[in-house]
Amino acid sequence: MPSYGAGDIQVLEGLEAVRRRPGMYIGTTDLRGLHHLVREVLDNSIDEAMNGTCDRIDLWIHKTNDITVADNGRGIPVGPHPTQKDAKGKAMDALQVVMTILHAGGKFGGAGYKVTGGLHGVGVSVVNALASEMIVEVHRDGKIFTQSYERGKPTSAVRAITKQQLPSPASLPWRDPARLTGTVTRFTPDKEMFPVIEWDTTVITQWLRETAYLNKRLWLGLHDERTGGEESYYFDGGVISFVRHLNRTHENLHPKPVYVERTFENNTIAEVALQYNDTFAEKVYTFANNINTIDGGAHLTGFRTALTRTINAYARKSGALKDSDPNLTSDDVREGLTAVISVKIREPQFEGQTKTRLGNAEVAGQVATAVNDALGQYLEENPTDARRIVEKCLTAFRAREAARKARDLVQRKGALDGFSLPGKLADCSERDPEKCELFIVEGPSAGGSAKGGRDRRTQAILPLRGKILNVEKARADKMLGNEEIKALITALGTGIGDYFDIKKLRYGKTILLCDADVDGSHIRTLLLTLLYRHFRPLVEDGRIYIGQPPLYRLQLGKEVRWAYSDNERDKAIRELKANAKTKREDRKKAAGEKAAADGDKATARTRRRAAEEAEEQADVASTNTDEGTDDGKGGREPAIARYKGL
After folding, report:
1. Which runs of E-coded beta strand occur in 62-218?
2. Measured between alpha carbons, how far is 116 from 505 in angstroms, rounded to an integer?
């Protein structure tokens, strides 16, 4: 047995702990963790805006994959820190303290900030630790100060520089130099920490757009030097503009969103906008101090409580609900609802550094009070709109009851039939779900080819006929009456809704294998929407994959090449021509056009791992379903063209 004594106890100094265990601070070191670095630096600038000292933030993505964030806030303080000393016992500069020491900043109850998103105080120093290089530039007190770092360690002292010594891009050009203040941070992610460094402008622009919605009259700009692209965001309407943007492709039940903004005694600000539309899905986004709390928390609980209570009270008062009728449930009143809930708190309590859930219990009551008063007043003052809203909730209640009866029937029938599997399912022999894969393919032709090329022990094939029902636009009872969807539910074995039980999952991996054309992209969008809405734990658990069938098969003698695009095809042809006199070329649009052996080699065993990408596409499919499956608004073709290559 190895010895374990006092000498084995290690103490990690400074930012060394961050580099040793980055997951503790940014979650992961994949692309999500990489983008988290940008968010941490951006949040510092947003904190300045929330405190009324900044009205513009710019972000550059450089050709070298460096990132620069610039704001015209007050600038990080510089000068000797009263308590922190360097290795020589000399007072450390405040700028260096902020950039190199964890839990350092003006966000811990001092006078520096009233409201902040970066309460944990580890953000910018963590970015510094995980960057191979970082340069910070501070404009303050009519001077320009700078300091550089490598992997969290200073490589220069804090020093004053002249305007002519400024690096590119020129900093803070939008103000009179005599009044110039702000902070510019440029960093290079460390390749030793991040195996892949690729910036996704879709993710970044979403942050910037959300931030502009949540902070009225704040200008945010993105400058992508890789493509020359420029984006800017500025909104006067705040969360009202946000809700209108989310509902832009829908028919709304009432023209103006219900809106409330209220400040409470402890300086907590609650801002809520909501609007009902003609769809059946709920879109509710919650934010705390501009942080997207994707897992909700106290503010979401308070909102849902007030929404359910207020609509039930009005429905009974207006006679829409009789004394003998049961109350509408929270699910009933949220069907077709779009809402944005934003709270700003002096001392928010988040779960962990990634801040996905708000824990301040008192916020639930504050949000509930604000929503109850505003929504109740709106319903009383707008009886026509109120009647439409209540009728939609009652329709949702009736549909829920019908769906429950349909689910009960399906469950009882499944139990009586010994959980009979769909007849068109070609099942596998392996009984361990973690070793099994389910391929969902288009139609009998693709199913026949896939069945011939599969590994019968571990791979099952389920062919679906044509395009499945768009569950985003269909009620649960209609969905459960669709034969193709019922076949998929039965094959997966988990059930849906209240019946969902991941322990009953029959296949550890589900692979969507659609044709490489526009119709195939449409079918994949519909399947992803179904999985995201009704089998979401499978998506979040990384069990959904996207098969990537090749477009072309090129053969020279016994040598076979597969091409997934026209460019790959042309490259393969050039390489084959260099050593061949003849070649054979086939275009493989559909999975069913492959021979059995080809299907085995080209797809079943050479598909790309796409768990994270499938989750991202499912989110895109869900968010943009009306655009991607539009029946008459002109959105379908451009949406599919935009996402089909993901």
Report:
1. 67-71, 80-85, 91-93, 131-140, 143-150, 153-154, 159-161, 182-189
2. 43
317 membership: H or E segment, kind and range: helix 298-318
Q: Write down the pLDDT at residue 386.
A: 97
d(CA 458, CA 506): 11
Residue 24 in tokens: 């503790």
* pLDDT tens per residue across span 343-386: 999 888 887 655 689 999 999 999 999 999 999 999 999 999 99
Marked catalytic residue, from 391, 455, 483, 517: 517
The tokens describing 151, both together, are 């992997």
- Of residues 259 and 640, more confidence is placed in 259
Q: Which residue matches tokens 């550089």?
A: 148
Q: Which backbone phi and psi does 545 adopt, to 5 degrees?
A: -120, 160
Q: What is the pTM of this model?
A: 0.64
Class for the domain spanning 16-232: alpha beta
> What is the DSSP secondary structure assignment for residue 580, as one 8-state letter?
-
Distance from C-alpha of 279 to C-alpha of 525, rounded to nearest angstrom: 17
Q: CA-to-CA distance for 421 and 487, rounded, in angstroms?
A: 8
Domain locations in the chain as residue ranges: 16-232, 239-399, 421-549+596-643, 552-587
Q: Is 442 a residue of the active site?
A: yes
pLDDT in tens, 243-273: 999 999 999 999 999 999 999 988 899 999 9
Tell me the Cα Rg of the chain.
28
SS3 471: helix
Distance, CA of 434 to CA of 618 (rounded, Å): 22
- To the query of whether residue 616 is one of the catalytic residues in this protein, the response is no
Task: Name the active-site residue from 58, 190, 515, 616.
Answer: 515
Q: CB–CB of 464/422 below 8 Å? A: no
Query: In 72-95, which positions are buried (b, 16+ CB within 10 angstroms) versus exposed (e)?
Result: bbbbbbbeebeeeeeeeeeebbbb
Least Cα distance to 443 among 517, 515, 535 occurs for 515
421-549+596-643 belongs to which CATH class? Answer: alpha beta
Directed axis angle between helix 201-214 and helix 31-50, to 10°? 20
Please tell me which residue, 196 or 591, carries the higher pLDDT value. 196
Which helix (DSSP H) or strand (DSSP E) does residue 229 occupy?
strand 229-233
d(CA 636, CA 630): 5
Cα torsion 611, 617, 623, 629 to 10°: value is -130
Give the end-to-end CA distance of the chain in Å, rounded to a whole number: 51
> Is residue 15 within 8 Å of residue 43, measured between CB atoms?
no
Q: Clarify whether 519 is annotated catalytic.
A: yes
Q: Please confirm, yes or no, whether 515 is among the known catalytic residues.
A: yes
Q: Is 341 left (phi over 0), alpha (psi -120 to 50) or beta?
A: beta
Burial of 237 per CB tally in 10 Å (0-12, 13-18, 19+): middle
Buried b (16+ CB within 10 A) or exposed e, 561-580: bbbbeeebbeebbeebeeee
Q: Other CB atoms closer than 10 Å to residue 381's CB: what's the count?
A: 9
**Catalytic-labelled residue, pool 43, 442, 598, 616:** 442
CATH class belonging to 239-399: alpha beta
431, two tokens: 């009984």
d(C-alpha 355, C-alpha 341), whole Å: 16
**Which of 519, 568, 613, 630 is flagged as catalytic?**
519
Sign of CA dihedral 231, 236, 242, 244: negative
